[in-house]
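Self-study notes.
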Amino acid sequence: MISQKLIFAQAGIPKDRLQFLRTKFYEDITSEATVRMMKQRFPVWGEPTNGEDLATDVKDLLARVSPKDIAMALEFAKKYVTTK
C-alpha cells in the first residue's frame, strides 16, 4: 500500500516564498537520512512529487471531483477545521 499526503500552502502566499518552501521541503524529504528512515518505516517508499508536477496532479484529481463533493468538503472544513 502506498500512501500519498498532499501538503498545501495558504492561498495568496508570495511566489518567491512558495518556491523557497517547495525547495527546502523537497531537499528535506529527499535527504539521505529522511529516505533511510522512511524506507525503514514504510516498506514501499517512492520518490516524492514536487512543485509543478504536484500542482498538475492536484488539478487533474480535482477535475474528477463533483461540485457536490467539493461543496460537502468545504462545509466539513468550515465546521471542523479551524485556524485559531
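Second protein, same conventions, sequence then structure:
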Amino acid sequence: MVKEIAYLPEKNDDIKCLLSYGERHPEYKFVDEDTTDFDTEKGFITKRVIIQRISDKKYFEAELLEATCGYSQYETEIIEVFPRQVTTTIYE
C-alpha cells in the first residue's frame, strides 16, 4: 500500500479555518480530529486532523499546532491515511 504525500498551501486562512474549526473548503472536507499533545505550561495544543480531498475522496492526516492566544500553525505536508472500521460487539 503506497501512501501519497500532498502539500497544502502555506499561510492560507481557508486551510487554517478548515483544520481549526472544520469550516467548509472547496478542495477538502473536515473528517475528524484528535489532540495528540497538550502543553499546559506553554499553552500549546497539537492536533492530528483528518481531512478528505473532495476530488478523489482520499483521506489525509495533517498536524496542527494551536496556542491559547489564538495563534495556529499547520504542517504543509499531509500524508495519505486509510480508514479502518472496527466493530465492537456488546452483549446485554
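Instructor comment on the second fold: Helices lie at 13-21.
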